[in-house]
Design goal:
Blueprint (H helix, E strand, L loop, with lengths): L1 E4 L12 H13 L3 E4 L13 E4 L2 E4 L1 H11 L4
Parallel strand pairs: 1-2
Antiparallel strand pairs: 1-3, 3-4
Helix pairs in contact: 1-2
Length: 76
């Protein structure tokens, strides 16, 4: 299962970061099971959110996450 590290709800939005929303939308569109957690900022590889953990493989940056999902799960 994919874990998406995000900020969490704020300002009446599901997440204040457009980059987190971009990744979550992609995960919903491709139908992959995922969970969201908000406890990853201190462990973020680039010091930023979002990033994912995909069965032990950490991918940071929403564009690199998109490429990872498209390549690994044959989704485009």
């Amino acid at each position: 299962m994919i874990t998406l590290y995000a900020f969490g709800p704020a300002f009446g939005l599901p997440d204040p970061s457009p980059f987190v929303l971009k990744v979550e939308t992609l995960l919903k569109m491709c139908g992959r099971a995922y969970r969201i957690t908000t406890d990853g900022l201190g462990k973020a590889p680039k010091g930023k959110l979002p990033y994912i953990d995909d069965d032990g493989e950490t991918v940071a940056d929403s564009t690199f996450i998109r490429w990872h999902i498209e390549r690994k799960y044959d989704f485009d």
